[in-house]
Structures are given as C-alpha cells and as structure tokens.
Specification:
By secondary structure, this protein is α/β, with parallel strands linked by helices. The chain contains 16 helices and 17 strands.
Length: 437
Amino acid sequence: MNRDTLIHNATIVTVNQGFDIIDNGFIAIRNGSIVDIGASTPDAPRTGAFDGVDADGGIVFPGLVNTHTHLPMTVFRGLADDLPLMTWLQDHIFPAEARHITPETVVQGTLLACAEMILSGTTTCCDGYFHENSVAEAVHTAGIRAVLAQGVIDFPAPGVDNPSSNVSHARAFTEKWRGRSPLIAPSIFCHSPYTCSAKTLKRAKSAAGDLLFQIHAAETESEYRRLWAEQGQSPVAYLDRLGILDARTLVVHGVWLHPEDRAILRRSGAAVSHCPQSNMKLASGVAPAPQLRGAGIPVSLGTDGCASSNTLDMFRTMDMAAKLHKVAACDPTSMDARTVLQMATIGGAEVLGLAHCIGSLEKGKSADLVILDAGSPHFEPMHHAVSHLVYAADGADVRDVMVAGRWLLRRRRLQTLDWPAIRDPVLQIAAAIFEND
C-alpha cells in the first residue's frame, strides 16, 4: 500500500479550472490520491501524520501527458536524420523494423523510453506500436500511466506476418489488457489512411469500440495530395466519410488541414495530438493548433517517437510549441505559456479520457505529479512559475516524480527501473542495428 505523503515548501501550479498557483503550498496524499492541497498555514496538515517531503522551494505541478509516441523506437534514435518523411520511413525505418523489432527489443526499447520519460517529468503517455503486449509489460514494470495501442497496417509488420490478421491481433491485445491494470488502458492504432485500406480502417475502428482509436492523418502535403488523387477528399474528410471520426478518435499531427477539415473535426468531436518537434524535423509543416483550439477542437501535445523527434522530453515540446506558433503567426501572444502547459497536462488528460483522475492537482484526483528543482541559476529570478516551466525548464530539472502516490523518481534516482540493466542491452541492440544498417 502507498504510504501517506505530505509534500510541503513548494510553489504549486495546480492547472485547475482557475489555474491557481499556491506559494509555500502543501499537498497531502493518501492511498494514491490527493486528499488536501493549499497554502501552508497553522491549520495545514502536519508532517507527523505523513511521510514528509520537503520540495525545497521547488515547483510542483501535474505530471506531463505525452499524447503521441512510439516507445520502442528509442532504439532507432538518430538512425536516419534529416530526411523527408517517406524516404525516412520506406528506406530506413520500415526495413530496420523488419530486421530488428522483436518482443525482446521492444521490451528494452520501452524500458529505455520509460526511464527517459520519468526522468523528464512525463507521468502519462499514449503509445502506438507493434508487439504491444511487450510494450505493456515494460510499462507496467516502470509504473507510469499509459494508453497503449496495438498497431494496424496493411502489410507484414513485426509480430503480424499476415496483414489479414492485423485487426484480430489488435482486438486480442485490447481484450487482454482491458481492466488488467489500473494504470494501463488498451487502444488500437491504425498507422495512416494511406497504409490502411478503407476496410481495415472501418474494422479497426469497430474493434476499438469505446476505447481510444488513434491514427496519423494529414501529416504531410504528399499525403494530402495522395488522398485527393485517390479519394477526391482530404484525409480528414475521407476518414469522416468512413465513420472513423468521433469523440474517441485521436488524430495525430493534423498539419494539412483546411477550414472545412476543422469544421469536420469540431462536429465529430475528434481530438488532435500536435507533435511540433517531429513536424519541424521532418519539414511536414506547421499544424494550425491555435486555430483548432479556437474552433473548440481538443488539442494536446506529443513528442512522437525518438526515431523522428530524437527525444521524449516534453519540456522541449512545450517550448517548441509556444515559439513555433509565435513565429509562424508573427504574433508573440500566440500560444502563451499557460495555454501550452494546459495542453501538456489537463489538455492531454482530456484527449485521453483521463481528465477525471489526472491532469491537474486537485482534491480527489490521483497523485500524478512532478517536483522540479528550482535552485539552478536559470530559474532565478522566478517572476512567473508557469513561464519558467515552458521557457526555462528542461527534463534535467526534474527532481521527483510520482504516479498514483508511488514514487518513480526520488532526487533524480529511478525507483522502479535499473538504469545500468536497461542501458547494456540497448547498446547491444544499437550495435546490431549499426552493423546491418
């Protein structure tokens, strides 16, 4: 059972509805949930009744929510940089996956990803890949919260040699993991509307049922033009015609969107995961995230996989998201720090259907939180904590991480994972990839 914990001497950024910021605050945690939160006063809970944790004047905020990644692809970090998307995929990533992705390499790549996320303040992620049972076992070991999706694609893939069984394989994964862990929710992920047929898309969406359905869509201009040539519609309009878009659909990227596509997304209730690092590195374009938010479409933030973004540090993603849209619009007020932090916390929780339990620090919610060490020179002076979280902080500033009241990181030491035991097998995998690629 989780020990009762009292975090004190903290600047608390709640990201609640009022976006309250509490100076010299405390958070009381019992049985994995927040039971009290507020300013330290004579009436505040005493550490004698709890395991007292001094935040040393640091910033405490909700754990970051990464709504799009491919965890095992950490093993391909830096493998094929500075290439167009289709060249990168077809000439490098797909062949490398065929040669090197096994249940064993997936476990090691996922453990590496979990270590990186914990150390950089991510407490919840949304993944889509192959051999997802192995991903789930590794995530369960790490103790982070996750929505995990078995990948579906219309050609032989790791673990699914026969494409005709791709949807049944995904369905079996969801049945195995539904209700198995309070921290893991199963999902189904179709790679894209150009790698999955209409029949596959409809079957996969039906198999997902009330679970989250994920799909890359409208990522590049070439995809947009291809769908227009083949279907006479944009990717979003095509998915809508097939009945794929609804409130349990997460559209990943959403770069090449026109006003009519935004109207479709708004009407359908579908959400978008914005991945600025990957979009910038692959030169896919600039997703109209501010316009989507202005239209009432839920928009969250994702890093994408390490093969295309090279890092799972959500602090980098927040900083890039804010600055990208300012320069794209020539407007310094676009995507302000508060908006970006919301997208990376409660916004991500909403997109994943988890806002009832995570995404903000409030009584009754799960204790998924981060303590940031604010003692470094780049934090001084601290006029606005939210500004520092988005523009000054990075993953190396994370001191402690908790999920559901359980410490995953204490004073920069991983509590559930053994880093040397993860690193050595990953280096062996990397050597094999280097030798063959």
